[in-house]
Amino acid sequence: MTILRAFALLTVIIIAVVAAARPAESPDSGAAVETRCGWFSNPTPANAWFLDGTAEWTVAIQGGHQAEGDWPSFKSGQWVKTNGNYGYGCACLQLRVDKQSHEVLEIKSSQARPLSQCRRDPALKKWHRKL
Fold it and tell me: Which residue of 18, 64, 90, 120 is most buried, as measured by CB atoms within 10 A?
């Protein structure tokens, strides 16, 4: 009987050690992939935001948060330069976001859109002063 108890105790200890060694998952690590369209703003190196009809989402902060995945590629007619080659454009992104922190966690895919698409969208007019 003591061998059985020792084995049971050893099993509990192993389970506890394995559980403690696993990294904690972030609250939104299981966030669903969504498609959102809006303004993609890259005003300065390594800083980018995505502004849609719902919120301002942080894509990247120099020296801080960096979303996984590739940023959209814009042709010259799809990009408004505001600071050298930095600026903004209209895009649709398939992404995962943290709705509490308003951070983009991952960009699965992106497609640049005509500037007129975002300019015509009434939900995006509120961001005009931020661009």
Answer: 90
Ramachandran category for residue 128: left, alpha or beta (phi over 0 → left; psi -120 to 50 → alpha): alpha
Domain-located, residue 118: yes
Which residue do the tokens 């939104």 mark?
A: 28
Q: What pLDDT sits at residue 129?
A: 87
Domain annotation covers residue 2:
no
Q: How far apart are CA 71 and CA 49, in angstroms?
A: 11
Sign of the Cα torsion 57, 59, 62, 64 reads: positive
**DSSP character for 32?**
P
Per the document, the length of the chain is 131
* Residues 75, 76, 81, 85, CA torsion sign: positive
The tens digit of pLDDT for each residue in 42-98 reads 999 999 999 999 999 999 999 999 999 999 999 999 999 999 999 999 999 999 999
